[in-house]
Each structure stands twice: as structure tokens, then as C-alpha cells.
Specification:
mainly alpha; 17 helices; globular
Amino acid sequence: MPRLAAASLAGTAIEFYDFFVYGTAAALVLGPLFFPTFSPVAGTLAAFGTFGVGFVARPLGSVIFGHLGDRRGRRPVLVVSLLLTGASTVAVGCVPSYGTIGVAAPVLLLVLRFLQGLGLGGEWGGAVLLTAEHAPAGRRALWSSFPQIGPALGFVLANGVVLALSAGLSDAEFARWGWRVPFWAAGVLALAGLWLRSSLRESPRFLEIDDHARVPLVEVVRHHGRLVLLTAGALAVGYAVFYAVTTWSLAYATERLGVSRTVMLTCVMGAVLVKGALTPVMALLGDRYGRRPLCLTGCAACALWMLPMVALLATGEPLLMFLAILGALIAFITMFAVIAAYLPELYEARVRCTGAAVGYNLGGVFGGALTPIVATTLAEQGGRVPWGVGAYLTGIALISLVCFALLPETRPVPVPAVEPVTG
């Protein structure tokens, strides 16, 4: 289990590095480089629009790779998804700016971002299921939480590279070529991830299945449609909160408040590191007290914290901004530390890769795709304190709270014994 968990963690860290480095670049430099004819705010919105395309592609990726995972095994998903995400990320770093090739630049950016999202849509399901289906029932949340630490490490790595480059280069150098370096580094990371995953064994639960679903998506829609929508609605708050504090807040603080890029990246990275360290702790609580209580607690905390969070962000004081982001991410990880165990336990094994991945990635569309765009628009329309952003995030949290309340508990029932939840 330690070797398997480490390989899954490393793979998700690499793939989420690819995904997050785009979000950071979108918040800091992509607007002027690829949408120079727009105003600064409109350019940022356009860059966030290409960022959102990755979320739209993720459910499609979960369908494609979920079919592969349910028909051919969890392990092939990990290899193909990593190759796709890594190659498209490297290619983003090679796209010429608008000033060089005109409108073809943002079009290429859009296509490559779509491919990034397609690969990441398959990554989560494969990594989580391979870990969850190997893990003992009493510690499933703990072992499954290791792939959930991957996004934190990927984010810190992506922003650490950007922070180092922005600190060592002038603004002109960073805009000219420095922002491309983190994308090129994705190629090396992808090769390392493939090497780590080359020795992984197939899930024992998958090997036990005698009757594989012919078209997993059809079965999921027919027998688990209500469950997919509830899980997507429940997870929307996690995506909304995470990308509000890690993507929108970067643009808001640097453009509206005049906070330096280095200070803001440091605040966000520090909070994400704490979140990563708390992930296995929250997962242990999920093994002890159940998945659903942790999810309800984290969701309620999000609803209560969003208005204080935007008030603290608006101060422009680094310590208070750090506390604002930290509080949001602690509430977030209280839910998401147990999600990797919770979602697979809700679905029968023959369609688990498709069902869990589609629900997870649809939550990204509902909560993550539009949040930077909506938050930027609301912040522009308000005063110094973006109360509209806080209200928007609180509303999503309340909707997710209702969805979590309608989902059943699964612990301590072992994965193979879980009956399908029909709807």
C-alpha cells in the first residue's frame, strides 16, 4: 500500500501541476499576451475563459477514460491520461503569442487547454480507484487520501516554479519567455510519472469482475443518474472555493489591490501546504466517524467562512490574506480528504470508474469552470470588499450542503459489498 499510494500521489501531483500552472499563468500573464486587444479586465476574463474550457473537457475525459477503466482496467487509464496531459501542457509553452501569429494563438491555447482537461478527467478516477480497491476497508479513506494530496503538491510545485521565475526575472523577461518554463518542465515530470507507474499492479477488485459493462456510461445514466447529479452538486462547492482562492484571488490581489505577485503566491502556497498536510488527518477522521459527517461539516464551514474570507482578502495585508485562504482550504479539505473513498463506495464495481469520475468532474464544471469568471465580474462591479463574490460562494456551499444531506453514508461497508444506489 505505501508504494501504491506513493505512485498514485506522484501521478496526480504531476497531472495537477500541469492543470494548475495554466491557472496561474491565466491569472498573471495570458491575458495581455493572447488577448492584447482587450482591456486588462476583459483580457483576464478571456484568459479565465480558456481556463474554464479545461473543466468542460474533464467530464468528457471521465467518460472516455472511465470506459477504458471499466472495460480494460484502472492501470491503463493512468498511463494514457498522464501522456495526454503532459504532452498538451508542454505544447502550451510553445504556442506563440498573439503578436506573432494573431488569432491562431488563442485558438491553439483553447485546443490545448481542452486536451489538458481531457487527460485530467481520466486521471482522478484511475488513480483513486487503483488505490481504493487495493486498500483494506477500515483504512480506505486514509490510503485513498494520498492521491488527494497530489493536487496540493502539484499546486505548490507549479506556483513555486512561477514564484522563483517571477522573483528572478524582470516583468518584461517573465512576460517574454519566463512564463513558458513551467510548461516545458511538465515534459520531464510526465516521464518521471510514467516510470513510477510502470510497476503498478491492476486492481484486484477489477480482476474479480466477471461481467464487465458493455457501455458503462449507459448503465451509469440509467441506474445511477440521480446519484451522479447529487455527487456533482455536492462537490461543486469544493471546486468553487479552491479555484476562487488559488486562481481568482491571484488576479484580484495583483490587479485590484496592488499586492505583489510574489507576496500573493507565497500566501496561497503556504495555505495549500497546510491543506496538504491535513489531508491524511481528515481522512483518518473519515475512517473513524464516516464520510458523510466530514463532508457535511466541511460544506457548512465553507458557507460560514466565505463572507469573512473576502473581507480579509480585501485588506491587502499578507497575514490576513493568508488566514482568509487558509480557513477556506481547511474547510475544503475536510470534505475532499474523504471523497476519494466516498465516491467509489457509492457505485458498483462494474461501472465504478465511469460513475465516480463523471460525478467528480461534473462537479468541476458546476463549481470550477465559471468561478474565476463570475468572481472577477462581481469584484469589478462592487467596491473594495467583493461581497458579491462571498455571497456567490456561500450560495454554492448551501446548494452542495443539501446535496450531501441527500447522499447515503457508506462506511464501514467494504467496497465489494456495496449495493448500487439507483435513481
